[in-house]
């Protein structure tokens, strides 16, 4: 993301995982660690995705250490695509290694939103994120678990009105039974082309709330 980004390889369930870490300034209030999941590995998704990078910047700006990583089979991460099942285990392994204790935030974009929601479901009752951001969640393509009701006040769900990859209706159909609010950005498509500044501002506003 910038010249100060730290890159490392850590152990994962299918081999090594490539990780990138961006930290807030040392004199800033340190709020904890945020782990961000990228879009679908088979369709060009990597931790360098612009939406993922924008979310990382929002976290760093608000005092969080932002951790991005490549799912198995992408970049220097070993292994191969596992239909979302192994990818959830990848995310859990990154949390365990990079944020084993302390305040935790999670975010995911598209396929990464599905993976993040699945990890939240597995962690429920053991480790709850203080903040959760789901962008363009792949609700039309995967069975996305519901967000635990007690996490709703800490959750921001963003979706573009003109999303041509995951139709807005699919996101609303997923959210409706939960009474989970969805913030709809008019005129915006899946990758937030030309609207990354708006995306960052919405994320920063959410992260700045008590």
From TrEMBL:
Keywords: Hydrolase. GO terms for molecular function: hydrolase activity. It holds the Pfam family Hydrolase_4. It comes from the Bacteria. InterPro entries: AB_hydrolase_fold (IPR029058), Hydrolase_4 (IPR022742). Residues 50-139 form the Serine aminopeptidase S33 domain. This is Alpha/beta hydrolase. The lineage of its organism: Bacteria, Pseudomonadati, Pseudomonadota, Betaproteobacteria, Burkholderiales.
